[in-house]
Amino acid sequence: MSRATLLIGLCLSLVPIASGFAQDTASESRAARPRPNVVVFLADDAGWGDFSHSGNQQVSTPSIDSIARQGVSLDRFYVCPVCAPTRAEFLTGRYHPRGGVRGVSTGQERLDPTETTIADEFREAGYATGLFGKWHNGSQWPYHPLARGFDRFFGYTCGHWGEYFDAQLEDDERLVRTEGYIVDVCTDEALEFIRDHHDGPFFCYIPFTTPHSPWGVPAEYWDRFRDKPLTQVGTQSENEKQDETRCALAMLENQDHNVGRVLSLLDELELTDNTIVVYFSDNGPNGHRWTGGMKGVKATTDEGGVRSVAYLRWPGVLPAGHVVEPISGAIDLRPTLLSLTGIEQQGQLPLDGRDLSPLLLDPDADWPERLLVNSWAGRISVRSQTHRLDHQGHLFDMVGDPGQTTPIEAEQPAIAARLQAHADWYREEMFGERGVTTPGGGNAVDPRPFPVGYREFPITRLPARDAEPIGNVHRSAPAPNSSFFTGWTSTDDRIEWQVEVVTSGTYRVTVDYTCAADDVGSEVRLEFLEDSLNSKIDVAWDPPLHDNQDTLPRPRAESPLKVFRTLELGSIHLAAGDGTLRLSAVTIPGEQVMDLRRLTLELVTVDEAR
């Protein structure tokens, strides 16, 4: 029997891996094929228990389940408690604090440009790269997906979107008004990308919007669940909101339909056998619903908040129906996909993730024991193969007590001490003197300035979520991501963005706004360093909130939206440098100035001599 050596682990040490006939055959099969395409599906807020393959009998997800049946399931696969950190760990193979991701909005979600992404590496290897859906790791260049390795982007860059029907989305550099349900629309674009690059190789990343709230789903799916009795309930069933559970499951069935559309196209184009397909979710369920008895939901570091399904399919290479028992996580996907596709790691920063390909290819592969960390908002939890240390220092036997009901640190002090030492290492390694009392979870605007004026991406959008409201101005809802500013009633009020102007030059200034007819006429002033622009809000635009598109009442924390109109304010000269970009009112003839969704700066003339 042959022996192979594979590069695995953070230390990049060579570990002997036993390989039998099945692995030899898979290696020969890989060598005989052209470089495989890769399709990655990422659900938003779907818990481990939201799929029929996990045992949920209330929902039908045959297309997603087929990836597991025809491929490999990672049985104990862990992600972060919330969205942006998981996406950063998938993209980089590194724990999210290393890349500067410390929150989910107000600039805290940005992934440092010094980090190499998996898309960077696929593009460098000659792959066409496309992203269709939710990005959530930065909006302005060089945080934008088109700066992070993607040739094509269609979707939105923030944490969640307030419009699920006929949404305004980004089409590369342009904002476009779409028609239809957001998941269907983004999948349409992904299908077009696959058709355009069917001669391959391509890397197609489809991060879905659902089942994240707001609770909106096409009627045909809601009708299946509207009056459906729930026979499987959450671990803390007293906290379950059953209509929200029904809507989440309806959203999952729509998502499954769209996964099926992609898989069918791969069949139609005869690409199935040479395409690696991955499916996972970014955190636990966004509500108390069935998780197989696990403790925790989204935003918690308990098992139910961080365990996700993870399925990988590559017919003829990965053994069908194989279940990987050793613990793994989103940080492992970058090194694993690079290994399976034969792409050499380009980034020089050390990885926290491991190449899982030995486990995927050989059910009998040897595998060194490891510890995985899940963290969020100052809470650190450590998972071994058999135990979890929670953020309060309590130890649980995850084999005998998967619901984390009985702490056993007193009975197993050596295990508790080992896991606590790893939590202490993580705290020091990721945060140092800062500790873990402040990162994540808040809505304070990130102190890193927002970049403006890169020549390769001259349009810079500065949404309300990235600004600081001063005075009476406030966001339309507590969750900043899809909010707008309202309540602008005084000349003492202002809106401020901390920015870094990269290129001196002349910028075209527009705002996306609404304004009632009785409030038309306010004079506003935009200032940065020594430069300023005065302009008037001289056109009424006062559409209704379109909250009629919601299936269920929108959570109080999330803002309903309306159709904002773009108004040009004029041109301003901006000198390169860091400072406060300030928008204020000089005169207010009506009750308020306007509601503001975003301010946009477009570099039109560069000061070559400066």
Description:
The protein is α+β, with helices and mostly antiparallel strands. It has 3 domains: 36-363, Alkaline Phosphatase, subunit A (3-Layer(aba) Sandwich), CATH 3.40.720.10; 378-434; 450-606, Galactose-binding domain-like (Jelly Rolls), CATH 2.60.120. The protein has 11 helices and 31 strands. The strands form 7 sheets. Strands 9-8-7-6-10-3-11-13-4-14 form a 10-stranded mixed sheet, with helices on both faces. Strands 20, 22, 25, 27, 28 and 30 form a 6-stranded mixed sheet that branches. Strands 16-17-18-19 form a 4-stranded antiparallel sheet, covered by helices on one side. A hairpin with a 4-residue loop joins β1 and β2. α5 packs parallel to α7 and α6 (219-225) crosses α7 (242-268). It is globular. The protein starts with a strand and ends with a strand.
